[in-house]
């Protein structure tokens, strides 16, 4: 590569470089040359007046010679000002050569303008000056022989001519000697020029080589910088990558240990990123990650180290004496920014963020343990509903061990029937009639005891058993539906809860279609309960909810009022039932505010032609108040506890609803 760079200088570019060097050298010597020329010209004038005095022709010659000197100086000044030695070196050399030639002619005219010129007598000293000037011009002008010879040749020709014209003895012999000197000067000038050109070429090539080496070095440095960026930076978001994060975390702990400080590690990921990525495409997912990293930079500022661990997962490292307190504040800021909608392909999309963090040395002794602790806190935040932050506490490890055991044994529990379903009655308050049942999952683990439904759902999600779990619960619901007509409840519905997370993993509607069709169930008696979160997240659940509607299933919104449902979505999706959140029911007989809310919701249900059912009714007073407010139906421990399917017939025979006061 370096050889190629220098070889490119061997053609026109090399010649141009040589011309520029010759022009610059000629211009540099011009003031000295002209000064010597003027001084020697004056000496020649004086020498010519030794025997003949100052003659008119001698003065005219001296004036002409000075005129050529002044003209050459003016031309040289103009050439320098216009930088012609760099921009137009060939023209510069031609001008210098022309000026030298004119000066040579002026000097060559000297013997011819002097009367009674005695070549081999008193005027022999003028020959010495003339030949000395010519020789000096050749010696000084070795860089450009043409310019030097342009001055020397007219002078030597004049000397040879006047010697040949002389009648004195020895004139011809001296003429031959001058011719020989001319030949020697010519060869010397050409040889000197060749040496100078060789030196110039070598210098130019060396300069080109140095420049090439400099460019190569700069290219290597740039490549090294690029490699360093690739090695330590995430190519999409430009924040640090996983490798750089590992180094930073280790060094951060070392620094914190040396200064007796804290180190906080926050791990966060974007909620529903996979669904957004699958819905809009990977380019939209990249756009979301870029905007998320930008918001993260704004939230963190200069205080922390940011890295992308992979996918939609990011990490922030903060050190200092107050790192734990700063981490809590930062987590809150990140959540605030994460709640702001992202605009993807012109559509606002709410993704949200979940954050978990842990601190050294409070929660871990090593970088690996700190990462595990922060990761546990993150999963706790996600399991508790996402869109929130959690700090690690020691109980999380015990919970993680418990959850891991649940995940390991869940598949066997589903297959063996150890995981069962219970049913909680739903009662029409005015007539005390049973209108339906809600399906609830139950599992008593051999060593862990009773497993809570949220734990079961979380384990199914982690172990990729969500569809199997839903299918098992739906199958139990279908079996109850096949027996209800024989129990005198042919129009009673059975509801099944579906987590918003389910819609991200598989087609809930297709799974339910397969199971209900296999049992010959009327879809109008099969109710699907979803949360408000699923209604709002149309990117994730929209098409499946439309499929559920087309299949003829009833659709209920669970825990209504706990989130931020849009009435437009409720109407668009044709929701059949709203289940009021327990918080509005507890103590309603003494809470005027809750009474107002429930009354308004009951009116809303009538206006939208939606059934209303209150959850969590535990006392006769609550049931009576709800009935008085126009709430048509309810469920809760007061009205009927969850029970296995084989207990429903006995419960229907013996149940007694305490009348409202």
From TrEMBL:
Every EAL domain range: 403-656
Keywords annotated in UniProt: Membrane, Transmembrane, Transmembrane helix
CDD domains for this protein: EAL (cd01948), GGDEF (cd01949)
Gene3D superfamilies per UniProt: 3.30.70.270, EAL domain
SUPFAM superfamilies (alphabetical): EAL domain-like, Nucleotide cyclase
Pfam families: EAL (PF00563), GGDEF (PF00990)
InterPro entries (UniProt xref): Biofilm_reg_signaling, EAL_dom, EAL_sf, GGDEF_dom, Nucleotide_cyclase, Rev_trsase/Diguanyl_cyclase
TM region(s), chain numbering: 54-79, 91-114, 126-152, 164-186
Domain GGDEF: 261-394
A GO term for molecular function: catalytic activity
Keyword check for Membrane: yes
Protein name, per record: EAL domain-containing protein
Organism encoding this protein: Aliirhizobium smilacinae
Taxonomic lineage of the native organism: Bacteria, Pseudomonadati, Pseudomonadota, Alphaproteobacteria, Hyphomicrobiales
């Amino acid at each position: 590569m370096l050889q190629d760079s220098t070889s490119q200088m061997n053609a026109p570019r090399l010649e141009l470089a040589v011309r520029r060097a010759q022009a610059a050298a000629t211009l540099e010597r011009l003031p000295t040359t002209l000064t010597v020329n003027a001084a020697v010209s004056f000496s020649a004038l004086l020498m010519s007046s030794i025997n003949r005095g100052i003659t008119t022709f001698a003065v005219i010659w001296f004036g002409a010679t000075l005129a050529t000197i002044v003209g050459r100086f003016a031309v040289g000044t103009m050439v320098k000002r216009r930088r012609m030695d760099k921009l137009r070196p060939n023209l510069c050399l031609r001008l210098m050569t022309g000026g030298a030639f004119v000066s040579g002619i002026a000097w060559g005219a000297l013997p011819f303008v002097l009367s009674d010129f005695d070549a081999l007598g008193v005027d022999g000293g003028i020959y010495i000056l003339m030949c000395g000037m010519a020789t000096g011009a050749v010696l000084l002008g070795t860089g450009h022989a043409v310019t030097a010879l342009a001055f020397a040749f007219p002078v030597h020709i004049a000397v040879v001519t006047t010697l040949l014209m002389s009648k004195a003895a020895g004139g011809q012999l001296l003429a031959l000697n001058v011719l020989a000197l001319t030949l020697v000067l010519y060869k010397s000038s050409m040889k000197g020029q060749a040496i100078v050109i060789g030196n110039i070429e070598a210098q130019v090539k060396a300069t080109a080589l140095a420049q090439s080496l400099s460019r190569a070095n700069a290219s290597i440095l740039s490549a090294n910088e690029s490699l360093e960026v690739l090695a330590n930076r995430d190519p999409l978001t430009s924040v640090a990558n996983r490798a750089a994060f590992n180094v930073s975390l280790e060094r951060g702990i070392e620094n914190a240990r040396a200064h007796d400080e804290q180190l906080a590690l926050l791990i966060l990921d974007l909620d529903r990123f996979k669904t957004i990525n699958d819905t809009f495409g990977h380019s939209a997912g990249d756009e979301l990650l870029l905007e998320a990293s930008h918001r993260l930079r704004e939230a963190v500022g200069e205080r922390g180290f940011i890295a992308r661990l992979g996918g939609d997962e990011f990490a922030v490292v903060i050190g200092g004496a107050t790192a734990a307190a700063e981490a809590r504040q930062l987590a809150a800021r990140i959540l605030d920014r994460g709640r702001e909608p992202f605009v993807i392909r012109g559509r606002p999309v709410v993704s949200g963020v979940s954050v978990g963090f842990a601190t050294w040395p409070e929660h871990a002794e090593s970088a690996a343990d700190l990462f595990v602790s922060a990761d546990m806190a993150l999963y706790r935040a996600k399991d508790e509903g996402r869109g929130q932050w959690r700090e690690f506490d020691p109980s999380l490890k015990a919970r993680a061990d418990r959850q891991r055991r649940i995940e390991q044994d869940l598949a066997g529990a589903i297959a063996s029937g150890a995981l069962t379903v219970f049913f909680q009655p739903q009662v029409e308050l005015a007539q005390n009639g049973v209108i339906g049942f809600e399906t609830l999952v139950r599992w008593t683990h051999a060593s862990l005891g009773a497993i809570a439904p949220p734990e079961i759902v979380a384990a199914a999600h982690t172990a990729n058993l969500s569809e199997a779990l839903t299918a098992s619960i739906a199958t139990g619901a279908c079996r109850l539906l096949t027996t209800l007509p024989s129990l005198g409840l042919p129009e009673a519905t059975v509801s099944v809860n579906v987590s918003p997370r389910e819609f991200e993993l598989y087609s809930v509607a297709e799974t339910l279609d397969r199971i209900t069709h296999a049992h010959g169930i009327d879809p109008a008696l099969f109710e699907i309960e979803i949360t408000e979160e699923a209604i709002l997240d149309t990117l994730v659940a929209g098409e499946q909810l439309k499929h559920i509607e087309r299949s003829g299933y009833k659709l209920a919104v669970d825990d209504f009022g706990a989130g931020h449902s849009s009435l437009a979505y409720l109407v668009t999706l044709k929701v059949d039932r709203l289940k009021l959140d327990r918080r509005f029911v507890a103590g309603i007989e003494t809470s005027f505010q809750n009474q107002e809310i429930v009354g308004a919701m009951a009116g809303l249900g009538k206006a939208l032609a939606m059934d209303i059912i209150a959850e969590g009714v535990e006392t006769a007073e609550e049931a009576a108040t709800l009935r008085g407010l126009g709430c048509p139906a309810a469920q809760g421990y007061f009205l009927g506890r969850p029970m296995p399917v084989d207990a429903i017939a006995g419960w229907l025979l013996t149940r007694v609803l305490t009348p409202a006061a």
